[in-house]
Amino acid sequence: MAQKPNWILICAAAVICLIIGILIGRYGISNDKEDVSLPKAKMSATLMEEISASNIGEYLKYLSSIPNLAGTPQDLEVASWVRDRFIEGGLDEVQLVPYKVLLSYPDMSNPNQVSLLDSSGKVNFTTSGRQTPLFSSEEFSPLVQPNFNAYSANGTVEGELVYANYGRKQDFEYLKSIGIDIRGRIVIARYGAIFRGNIVKSAEDGGALGVILFSDPKDFAPEGRKSVYPNTTRLPGMAVQSGSVLLGYGDPLTPLYPALEGAYRLPEAEAPLPKIPVQPIGYDEAEILLRSISTENPAPEDWQGGLNATYFLGSKFIQRKWSVRLQVRMTHKLATAYNTIGILYGREEPDRYVLIGNHMDSWTLGGIDPASGTSVLVEMARTFGNIKEKSGWRPRRTLMFCGWGAEEYGMIGSYEWAEEHAKVLIQRAVAYINVDSAMEGNYTLKSQTVPSLYSAIREAAKMVPNPNPAEVKAGRKTVFDTWLWANPDLNDPTQPRVGNLGSGSDYTVFSHVLGVPSVDLYYDYQEKAGSYPLYHTLYETYHVVANLMDPGFQFHLAVARLMTELTLDLSESMVLPFDVVSYAHFLERDLDKIESRYTNLAANNGATFEYFRKAVAHFRNSTEYFTDIILPRLDTSNPLAVRKINDQLMQLERGLVDPHGLPGRPEFNHIVFAPSSVDKYSSDTFAGLVDLFKTVGNQTEVEQPNTWRQIKQHLSAISFLIGAAADSLREGF
Amino acid sequence: MAQKPNWILICAAAVICLIIGILIGRYGISNDKEDVSLPKAKMSATLMEEISASNIGEYLKYLSSIPNLAGTPQDLEVASWVRDRFIEGGLDEVQLVPYKVLLSYPDMSNPNQVSLLDSSGKVNFTTSGRQTPLFSSEEFSPLVQPNFNAYSANGTVEGELVYANYGRKQDFEYLKSIGIDIRGRIVIARYGAIFRGNIVKSAEDGGALGVILFSDPKDFAPEGRKSVYPNTTRLPGMAVQSGSVLLGYGDPLTPLYPALEGAYRLPEAEAPLPKIPVQPIGYDEAEILLRSISTENPAPEDWQGGLNATYFLGSKFIQRKWSVRLQVRMTHKLATAYNTIGILYGREEPDRYVLIGNHMDSWTLGGIDPASGTSVLVEMARTFGNIKEKSGWRPRRTLMFCGWGAEEYGMIGSYEWAEEHAKVLIQRAVAYINVDSAMEGNYTLKSQTVPSLYSAIREAAKMVPNPNPAEVKAGRKTVFDTWLWANPDLNDPTQPRVGNLGSGSDYTVFSHVLGVPSVDLYYDYQEKAGSYPLYHTLYETYHVVANLMDPGFQFHLAVARLMTELTLDLSESMVLPFDVVSYAHFLERDLDKIESRYTNLAANNGATFEYFRKAVAHFRNSTEYFTDIILPRLDTSNPLAVRKINDQLMQLERGLVDPHGLPGRPEFNHIVFAPSSVDKYSSDTFAGLVDLFKTVGNQTEVEQPNTWRQIKQHLSAISFLIGAAADSLREGF
To answer: Where are the transmembrane segments (chains A, B) (predicted)?
Structure first.
């Protein structure tokens, strides 16, 4: 007999299941259409595995195989090669971006010369003008340029010689103080303490006829003349550091605007180029010059170097009426520099960009500068692109891999590009990660960045295995461990030290002009004196890197992994990993220093730090409130709420940018970080203010009314901007 | 007997219901927590109903009951009253924002005077210095200031009189051309053609000792001396138009930066204030002066006005050795101006702002300027606030209702506030809607805005019933219909004409400095001559508005409804209603004009429009591609995709802003829209370029190398910015 349905039970079951079903449907199923947002930890592991040291080595071998001076056919070849790697690597969009800019070249067949003349004008000695190939076949390339400093003035000058140590401001002041006049004379100075362009500027301002630059063996070959390339990474005697002496940034003819087709270009005479000739020589050659100087004026103890000579100041020679002749033949001309831009669009926020960049041009072979960084950049692009191709995963935000052109001449490619895209970058760029020479030694990581990224870079360093077996043996398992051990932060010894961004590489325009939080990083060596010995010489070869500095490319791998971890963190974290409270601490410490130094002087001249102090306190309160109160209650399921918070985090740095520029330096806008006005390489915090205090010295408002007025105006601007930046973190308007 | 359960059926039912449940849960329930996004059409109807003409009338009665000159206690009273209305209206957050700025006041007990002296120095006639109360009780207030021009220099000057018509550049040039020198003389000129500050500047530049200003009855009382206030809206003979003669914008002592506590302030001598005294007088008084001028130099036909006199140019008087004496006693001092900011946070995009603003200060009673606009503003805030309180509905984006302080002195409140919040506004402001005098007549709507908002304002006008019964009778049912009939667009007669923004009100800083798309609108009268007759006089009373101009406040209601429709559109539309292609058409037409005028001149001097033309073509292609291809495929269910598109639409206008300023005018940044350099009230498109072409005249590159250089530089900047703005609309980077 067929059972009758038990309708009550059936209905009850149906209702219960309907409810359960509704609950499952509502809460049990993710609404993401295609969930490719894998956990960050898993992506980190996948990325770390994918990065290949041997790829880096291969790239470096290619990149260091030809001299690729900006604007030459080889330079385009390298930029195209990077483009092809980006395409091959699976990036979504790759652009080769040309800019026609003013570059500067030596005469290939007629090298610049420095000669020693006797009283009759007869040449006793002349520099060779070229570096001798010593080891690798590529050193013999006919494309290697003779020795030169880009943007040197043309001309032949003759005169007595004055030795000016490192050519710093204080060095020239010392010479003046003991009555040695550089006017009408030729200055010889050592590389290694400040940017070479600033040496030339001081010499030119002092009335010198020309400048000769050399690298002292004390700094660059401390183990002596025999322990040098190709046996070690030290500098041989005929090696010459090339380099630009441009004091400006970006294309000298199109300041503040991009060098596009049809752009207005300044007359060359108005560009910030030296008006006197300058030429770099080897230390073997410098020795001959220095040994010829009269013993009349001995140089101070700390001006003595490593040459086989006692250093005298000049200006007379031992032999009566001898002189030095400096002959420079340069061509300055419009040439095309190329950037290679590779884009991997973001999964959820395609209009938010994390940029990773390095330049592609080099003075000669550039095995370290820039090939070590470019290899890392290309491998990173391949890694992200490859994983996207294989798994469909792409980070939440867009990645832009940027190969810059003509960095060596003055960050030209990055400046022109950032000028062209300034508005879009200000609105959309999350951060810029710079690598230049990725590896200058195997001692420790070094990094410069803005305070809000301190924790991100430190956390990334904790994720990367230590590439140094000796360090691992000593118990320091990660890059972070060695970094902390080798270089602790003086303000907080539990953390490794992070420095401030100067202006020695392509981060300059992003950080100091646009206010995009930027990072620069590399592996450094211990006994650093300005730069690694072979810097900008012919001997930056694959051999140096692969055989002497980083066999197996494990340090390169570590840098690539570190940058990849940082890139992942910045591009994948739902909430941007910016520690804004850290910025407040930084500003407080820095204001303390400024106040302790200048408060009395300021008060005596009608200026006050009161509003600066108030603004910084407000900044601290605002960042703390944002971090402690606003962030924890963020509804992470609301994409626009998350975007709002991220925009505030990202734009905080923009808030520290003054669109009207620093006092007397309209080309710099960041009120906290700007290059020092006396050394392009280094950074002064609150450079606008500190420069004015340096200018005013101990003079009063009556003696220097204009400078004091500028101090008050700039204090006012700083206080306003810091306060407004703090306000931008408010929950509401 | 108990029936056994039929498990098969039960299970089947359970499974089916589970599946149904899951489907309901997944697709049948909206994920919005609380859906308060009602259809825009419904909200429009609700808002239209809520706005009350009688409220507007009541507000206007209060606002015009006391003189509230900026920086006075009455001004604070009005700002506080607006604050209280905003709070009462239900806005989320209301701020009273003070700025200490340089304001300028006459001596209350010792009015400025213009006197006619005979050859012995005896005073024959002296102006009264005050306007006579004629009708309303509030005209008798002891708080009414004597007649003055704010920021006039102090001092007493004596000399002959020169009549300079409207004081335009061409008027002064005419005087010069016929040999009448204003040097050492006093200029008398008519109000009504250009901004009064530009009249004074030209006089000062020409060496005049002082300036006397009056309103000619031909322009301001065309029906004769009897048909005037209080019987009509025409100007009585002792009425005097007050007003500022400041040529700068914002607080004169803190250019480019906000006047915050501790801000650096310029010495007053460096502020852009006139160096000569200036005083406005009534036309009855002007008549006495003009009738005293010698008949030697008759003024041209079109310089003749409506006074009972033939106008002569001077400078001699009929009587030998007579002269005019101008005595001005002003106090310039730091005083506090207040803005009142009321915020209604957005439902989905709280960090996107639609701003609606008008100023609160007035020269005397300000029944029209600004009370007609302020009443509308306050009623709009109440309307939106009230509906939010009643229904919980709030628009998608944030509304900010802005009552500005010290607009009359030079847009000071809006400038200081926009300078203070510049960064945040650049990032977050969608649009700024300005109303000043909401109703100057009942003829037609007038509006000035940027091309991307043409269609939005026109669509809004179609939604608003015509407040003019005669027009309705004539078949023109909406505000749009009359507007189109009365003032068709010459380029497209199917659309009503929209003008360009000058700099006569608070939109200036938003549009011309920050690049926030702005709108200005009001109801105008037909036979306009510069301003409505009672403008800035004592007789801008409630009586004029309520009894003569807009009984029942129906025109005010129409303006309020129009602004509300526009506000709703901008704040509620998922995709911003910006017509970017319209901008391209505008640029093309304008470039055509410039090219047809200047191409030969430019070509003869090494300048070219080629890249400008290319950039505009690129702008057109980009806006069309964006509109036709990108917009239609937008996934509107993806909030971040919608945000991306909206950011591009919103930021396009920012792209036309040059952070480095226009040539020689760093205070203006918009390359397309800027006030004319010869009349602050009017607007030149591409003012930077047109000004340079005016300066260069027909002179060659050899004769004026610097100006030609500036032309080339600015052409380069314009071309770059238009191109980059176009690029910002790309789908990817």
So the answer is: 7-29
Contact B16 A14 (CB under 8 A): yes
CA distances from A89 to A49, A85, A384 (A): 16, 6, 8
Q: What is the pLDDT of residue A359?
A: 98
A513 to chain B: closest CA residue: B659
What's the CA gap between A191 and A164, in Å, rounded?
11
% of chain B residues with pLDDT over 70: 95
The upper half-sphere exposure of residue A614, i.e. CA atoms within 13 Å in the direction of its Cβ, equals: 13
Residue of B nearest to A26 (CA): B25
| Closest residue to B9, CB basis, from A5, A19, A25 | A5
C-beta atoms of A21 and B20 within 8 A: yes
Looking at residues B221-226, what average pLDDT do you find? Answer: 92
Q: Supply the pLDDT for residue B36.
A: 66
Please, which residues have CB within 8 angstroms of residue A212's CB and are 6 or more apart in sequence?
A114, A161, A186, A187, A188, A189, A278, A279, A280, A281, A286, A289, A324, A326
Q: Which helix (H) or strand (E) holds A178?
A: none
B interface test, pick of A4, A7, A10 with most B CB neighbours within 10 Å: A10
Quick one: closest CA in B to A423, which residue?
B655
Q: Does B258 touch chain A (CB under 8 A)?
A: yes
Q: Which of residues 323-362 of A touch B (CB under 8 A)?
A: 341, 343, 345, 348-351, 353
Q: Can you name the residues that pair with A342 across neighbouring β-strands?
A: A94, A401
Of 1.10.10.10, 3.10.580.10, 3.90.226.10, 3.40.630.10, which CATH number belongs to A40-103+333-462+498-572?
3.40.630.10
Tell me: the pLDDT tens digits for A47-60? 999 999 999 999 99
Q: Which of residues 9-68 of A touch B (CB under 8 A)?
A: 9-11, 13-29, 31
Residues of chain A with pLDDT under 70: 1-5, 7, 13, 17, 21-37, 527-530, 680-682
> Closest Cα partner for B456 from B581, B567, B559?
B567
Domain ranges of chain B: 40-103+333-462+498-572, 108-328, 580-727
| Chain A nearest-CA residue for B710 | A264
Strand partners, B281: B214
Nearest to A257 among B23, B256, B717 (CB): B717
Which residue of chain A has the CA closest to B610? A262
DSSP letters spanning A240-294:
---EE---SSS-TTSTTS---TT-----GGGSS--SS-EEEE-HHHHHHHHHTB-
d(CA A145, CA B185): 72
The set of residues, in sequence order, having a beta carbon less than 8 Å from that of A52 and lying 6+ positions away, is: A379, A557
CA distance A19 to chain B (A): 6
Output the six-digit token pair for A360.
């592609």
Phi, psi (deg, nearest 5) at residue B683: -125, 135
Query: Residue A455: what pLDDT?
Result: 97
How far does A23 lie from chain B, in Å, by closest CA? 6
Size of interface A-B (CB pairs under 8 A): 207
> What's the CATH fold of domain A108-328?
Glucose Oxidase; domain 1 (3.50.30)
| CB within 8 Å: B260 and A723 | yes
Indicate yes or no: CB of B647 within 8 angstroms of CB of A421: no
Which is the CATH superfamily of the domain at B580-727? Transferrin receptor-like, dimerisation domain (1.20.930.40)
Q: Does residue A628 sit in helix, strand or coil?
A: helix
Chain A neighbors of B607, CB-CB under 8 A: none
Tell me the pLDDT of chain B averaged across its residues.
94
Subunit contact B353:A733, Cβ cutoff 8 A: yes
Residue positions counted in chain A: 733
Q: What is the pLDDT of residues B139-186, one digit of tens each?
A: 999 999 999 999 999 999 999 999 999 999 999 999 999 999 999 999
